[in-house]
Records
---
Amino acid sequence: MSVSGSVRLFFYLLPVGMLIRVSRLKVTLWRAFALLALLVVSCVAMAVLLIRDTLRFCDSTPEYHDMRTGKLERELVLPTDAMYHVLLFRWRFFGSRHDGWLYQQTLRKLNMAYDDWDIPFEVQGQDPKTQVLDYCARYGVPTEPWVWSEPPAEYETMNEFFGRRHRAELAPERNLGDAPVVAPATGVVSFFETVAQMPALLKNKQFDFARCGIPRHAAYEPHAACLFYLSPADYHNFHAPFGGRVRHVATLGGATHSAGCQPELLEHTNLLATNRRAIVVIACGDGGGGGGGEGGGALLCALVAIGGVAADSVRLDEALTEGATVARGQRLGCFARGGSAVALFFSSPVRLVAPCAAVHARGLRFKVDCGTALAELGA
């Protein structure tokens, strides 16, 4: 049994053992006091361990290279968020099964704090500007210059701000990079040479790509994959990495709440199989142009939009249906609430553009803006 499992089992059984002991034996006052002291010491010890692991989690976020600024950065992790992640995913205090009752009830309670994000500020008696700017201050969303399409006071709900769009002249679809494959989202990228390498690199033997829900998943396994992590401060719309025809659209995982998407949690959970997600398969060179796969066939790209804790809603554009044609950089949908992730898988070889490849060669993750150059076609 793991250390976290042993800790959880001890704290589960301790109160039960105390009750049985007190009910069956006529304990003396000093024995009752000793049992109470033991309980207090145990709770204090647990609190100390939780504080220690929470601080370690806050400090464990690896550095990434911001491709826009050229600087090394770290994600801002709030201690309260870190504490929940330690209890849920590292200690597995509420169970180790993703579909377990106690585990899901805990996630449901966490999500209830965001149930009012679709309710207008006016109905809740709140000032829109105050709520929006408080969110920006809490999660580090830059406010100078203000690059979003609406001023803070004109957003009607928190989810409207969370799924905010850029001003027209700054929109990703109007500022696309010159590579055939552009970044579908703003986020920190973990790049994998092949999908088959992911379990070993993520240190997660339970990572099972076949359970993701992508049709004919085996075609993607020999080729590269990108995993974008979107922090609560990031732009939360996702766009087409290249133009083409939509071969497949599906939403999965709606029966359960999602686990965390942070890269440092990937060794503890298989978010491609457990989290709420939307899958969009686009065929490049099948009505949208941009190049084909090996042997003249269309290059397929499977985009998986993955909800995280609190970001449990993936909202696809209504026009995104099977058979539709999408343009390179076209908006496909957005997330509601909290951090989330976007994964890209390819059915033919692709390679990172030179600046990103140089950072990846140094063993670093890198952050890109939506619509910027990401990859070239071919090995």
Note: The two ends are 44 Å apart (CA to CA).
---
Amino acid sequence: MSEATYDPTDPAYVEWVAELQAAQPTPGPTAAGGGHYDHAPSVPPTDKRSVATQLVDLADTRWHFGISTEGEACALPHTGPQVVRMLTGSRSIRAELADLFQETTGKVAGQQALADAVLVLEGRARRHEPVPLALRVAYVDGAVWLDLGTLTGEAVKITAGGWGGSRRAADPVPPHRPVRGAA
């Protein structure tokens, strides 16, 4: 757990925490044309924590962390489509976290701070029991869920009685969208 170097009863700190809690990601650029957050929180006026610590705290405002049965540390967003993201690799949360930090502070997080933050988040993820992750197809409560691969997390529930849509996990390479009555 990170140690704060400011008074949590300070009105400036309380306002900053409220901004962090109000900041919600959106799927694309804002109407103003910048960034992908409706409202990027500012940093506390006297925040003397390391950049890595600030990155970890920002990550905690966006994602829950866990571990897959394959041993991969992963992140699940608090809100929006429940698309699992890995902590390392080409589609990890690292770039999004760096972008959020820059929008939040006006500063760029260095590679070492990002690496340190991701290492802490991976350790945090490993505290949890492993869970199986489904890439394209999942079997849940007697139904088959087929991920359509949309960025919105659209999936189709398939049962013996037919199929219907829902919003669940996503993958960026979409298969053909099913059409009712098509063979």
Note: The longest strand covers residues 154-159.
---
Amino acid sequence: MPNAPDPGDEGIAGDRRPALHAIVLAAGEGARLARLTERLAGAPVSKQFCPFNGGRTPYQKCITRLSAWISRHRIIAVVARDDSERATDQLPATGAVELFSQFADCGTAIAVLGPLIEVLVRDPSAYVLISPADLGVVDEAALRTTLRYATGQAMAHQRTVLVGSPLARSSAGAGRLRPYEPALPGGPIVPLARLVAAPGAGAAEPATGNALVDTQLVVAPARALLELYAKLYPRLLRMFLFWASLPVAERAHYFDRAGRGLPRLDLQADLLAFSHDLAVCCLPADAGVFDLDTEHAVIAWLAADASVAGHEPSLVPLAPASDRPYRRTRVPAPSGIYPAVAVRAHA
């Protein structure tokens, strides 16, 4: 990687580098993999908390990956209320991170907003690294190196950087990042021309031009993200700012009442896609970063991981195709609250 400012967390006396915080998205239900994870774990469990290969879960690996260079007191994990105890149990007491219990699964854009406000209250100049907790990774060192480089570039240029990976057959249903010019592994960041949302199961986006797979890893100035929320969803932001002003004991009760009509908003498709100042950083092809959104993606990740490690791949018991719960539920958007162009209903 080219030289870039080291975004190390602690720094030295007099160091004025912005602090880096991490928001880990670990609240997804993982409905598509529900049958598989139940068979592997012996009980219903979200995919980020499932030990696919008999070892550590994707959630544990994600926290370990980030805490290698970000202090754990600056890592916030967004989890569903029902998973709070599991998320705590999967980390040792000495390595615990702050948990943010999500009141409902309303998509990644809403999942990020609460922790983002919390970060800005503590540090108005902070940068945030947003990471899904359910990534399957083959080369952890390569991913950590790229994330550190992307963070350094985001801080140096004061802009939002998205991390992409070269296209692969297993990424047919993932979102796409289309930079203005080719983004090379180890090369400089490249301005983004277009962010294409994930088309969903069975609707692959053509692999053309300079397109990269969107890993959903994002490094951004926290204030810039909040300004984007203010521009696109002012009433949603006001709701969350009022929530943040409440005593901690009253916050959950507030969203139990006020949050019932919220639509499902995706961080990439419904927020970042409307930004005009995005850049792309490319992962090495052999980093092997997989979005574990389908059983076939899980198989591809385990096979790649086994090939690198030199052992036999883990056996994954597939459910019959007719039993896979791939159907999505349409979530209505209340009129008058959100701009219609930015609200995506899943069918």
Note: The chain has one domain: 20-312.
